């Protein structure tokens, strides 16, 4: 497994973790009603979307680069 594939794996893991944390924050907002949880959830979902965009950009950038 090359360095580029490991980078993609870490991006996928970061997206998963960020989305899971966002879901937990939204669930905690429903349970406790504190607005900080909702802000944390929205921020985590925004980070997950940003990471998906970065992953897409990275895939397009590396199309012409051989796997090493």
Helix-strand sequence: HH
- Mean of residue pLDDT? 93
Percentage of residues in DSSP E strands: under 5%
User: Any idea what the shape is?
Assistant: elongated
The largest β sheet comes out as: none
Q: How would you classify the helix and strand content by structural class?
A: mainly alpha
Please provide the count of β strands: 0
Distance between the termini: 8 Å
Residue stretches low in confidence (pLDDT < 50, at least 5 long) are: none
The tally of helices reads 2
Q: Tell me the Rg in angstroms.
A: 16 Å
Helical proportion?
over 70%
Structural overview:
This protein has 68 residues and is mainly α. The protein is built from 2 helices and no strands. It has helices spanning 3-32, 35-61. The model has no long low-confidence stretch (mean pLDDT 93).
């Amino acid at each position: 497994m090359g360095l580029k594939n490991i980078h993609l794996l870490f991006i996928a893991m970061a997206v998963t973790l960020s989305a899971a944390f966002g879901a937990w924050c939204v669930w905690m907002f429903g349970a406790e009603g504190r607005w900080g949880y909702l802000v944390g959830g929205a921020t985590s979902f925004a980070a997950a979307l940003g990471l998906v965009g970065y992953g897409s950009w990275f895939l397009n950038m590396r199309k012409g680069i051989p796997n090493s």
